[in-house]
């Protein structure tokens, strides 16, 4: 049976190894490099020699260590599962009791388009998609508008008491009533102490928390009945921002207000501008235009393919066009679909590079025959 001196040597050498590994880590070595470091390997071998002298029931043996490690892992998993079940039930109860604000609307494309899926593209020449978005039709077909940046992010909305994530119920499906396409999933709510609850849950998306964290107190200060709509953007969520390490933020693009009966309405964009200023929330960049024209917006979209967002060095996704004043018309224009239009045109030219001759009508053919007959008759005379 090993004496107390062996026990003490094992404890002391194990502490030396831990300290050595910590020192090597501060020098920038990776875990695999540390484990294969000559000094570490030598000490570990000596530790194994000392442990071999311990009695089989000694808690310092490897067998005892791995048994404790396994039990601790099993206990931790059981506790995690219990916490997860409790949190899911708590979140479900909060979601069922939460007032549902106005869900962010479906926004149609500004330009006429053709194709589906990978062949979907804007169809030249530039023409407004009046059938879906309303621009280009009605008493004022070309109204004053705000042109706002379209951000590529996770669509969120929040009141002073609740934070929601918008959920697409359709996926790739595109038929049906567009007003039924989206739903809301509760992510967080204010508890009795006025703190946000749910953001630290086990299944909570920490990337969204990182994006919202600087603005949580501002969201909590919103007026009753007011709902703000924003995109949460993050280095590890959106492909467009992968090259920006540590990028996490939000961009506001809409507000709505609910009355005493719970019926909500989206506010004009000039009110959104003022509310974003009042609550110190970051707003998408925008530009006011006195008149909407398809040709001008088409040209702007072509230029946008080489343009960054105003507040982030990342490629612009496109624009959202919002009717100024009390009008509620809104539409989107994406760079991707304009580039797809150019690709379709190029493919068509490549497939048939020669321009087709215009087919002759019967009248044209008859006139040509008559002309030839007259020429022949003159030669005979």
From TrEMBL:
Protein name: RNA ligase domain-containing protein
Source taxonomy: Eukaryota, Sar, Alveolata, Dinophyceae, Suessiales
Organism: Durusdinium trenchii
């Amino acid at each position: 049976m090993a004496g107390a001196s062996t026990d003490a040597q094992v404890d002391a050498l194990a502490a030396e190894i831990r300290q050595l590994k910590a020192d090597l880590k501060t020098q920038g070595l990776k875990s695999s490099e540390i484990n294969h470091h000559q000094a570490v390997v030598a000490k570990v071998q000596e530790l194994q020699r000392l442990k071999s002298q311990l009695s089989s029931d000694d808690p310092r043996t490897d067998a005892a260590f791995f048994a404790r490690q396994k039990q601790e892992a099993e206990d931790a998993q059981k506790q995690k599962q219990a916490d997860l079940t409790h949190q899911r039930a708590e979140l479900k109860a909060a979601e069922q009791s939460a007032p549902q604000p106005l869900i962010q609307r479906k926004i149609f494309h500004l330009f006429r388009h053709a194709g589906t899926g990978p062949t979907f593209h804007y169809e030249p020449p530039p023409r407004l998609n009046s059938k879906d978005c309303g621009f280009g039709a009605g008493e004022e077909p070309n109204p004053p508008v705000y042109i706002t940046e379209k951000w590529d992010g996770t669509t969120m909305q929040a009141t002073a008491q609740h934070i929601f994530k918008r959920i697409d119920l359709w996926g790739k499906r595109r038929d049906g009533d567009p007003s039924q396409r989206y739903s809301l999933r509760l992510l967080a709510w204010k508890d009795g102490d006025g703190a946000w609850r749910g953001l630290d849950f086990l299944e909570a998306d920490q990337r969204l928390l990182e994006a919202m964290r600087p603005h949580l107190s501002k969201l909590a200060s919103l007026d009753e009945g007011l709902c703000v709509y924003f995109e949460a953007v993050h280095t590890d969520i959106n492909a467009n921002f992968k090259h920006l390490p540590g990028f996490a933020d939000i961009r506001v693009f809409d507000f709505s207000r609910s009355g005493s009966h719970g019926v909500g309405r989206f506010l004009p964009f000039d009110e959104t501008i003022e509310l974003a200023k009042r609550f110190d929330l970051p707003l998408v960049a925008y530009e006011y235009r006195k008149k909407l024209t398809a040709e001008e917006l088409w040209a702007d979209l072509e230029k946008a393919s080489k343009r960054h967002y105003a507040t982030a060095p990342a490629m612009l996704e496109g624009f959202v066009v919002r009717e100024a004043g009390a009008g509620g018309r809104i539409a989107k224009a994406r760079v991707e679909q304009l580039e797809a239009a150019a690709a379709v045109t190029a493919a068509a030219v490549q497939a048939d590079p020669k321009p087709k001759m215009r087919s002759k009508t019967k009248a044209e053919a008859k006139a040509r025959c008559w002309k030839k007959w007259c020429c022949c008759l003159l030669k005979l005379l």
